[in-house]
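We modelled the chain as a single entity of 168 amino acids. Its sequence is:
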Amino acid sequence: MFYRTAGTIAAKNLNILRAQVYTSKNGVMIDTFQITDPEGNVYTYDDSWESVSTDLRTELMSANRPPEPGIYVPARVLSAAITPFVEFDNDTSDSFTIIDVSARDRVGFLYHVAKTLYDLNLDIGSAKIVTEGVRVMDSFYVTDLLRKKITDSVRLERIKVALLDVLT
């Protein structure tokens, strides 16, 4: 569901600057987002919010994939040289593998990362999404579909390769 939300917002050419994402053990999702337009201005257009809300409701209830976000890279991002990275932490949490990712920001970034985690059969229990200038620094608390931490080194490497592919 998280990737659907991120994809729907990105398809509107909006950028998720910050987010707090939490899914309870019984499946209740509580997600909050700070959204900007592609140039980084806080998005406050009341008329457009109705369209965003309607599309979110439709996409969250649909069995279809959300629309793929378009590619829009603001000028402020083009000049930034940021090397993407992916790191794993299996020590901090007893229940989750923490995946830290960092890369250059762009519209649709969060959608592509969340969709990749979904495609890798990972369940996002919570996430902390932070954008500082043009750098994204996100942390995803994940488990496999059996609610177990990811400890197999081969699987961790597969996850890293897949994420680095979408971060560049």
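As a brief sanity check on the tokenised model: DSSP finds five helices and six strands in the chain. The two ends are 24 Å apart (CA to CA).
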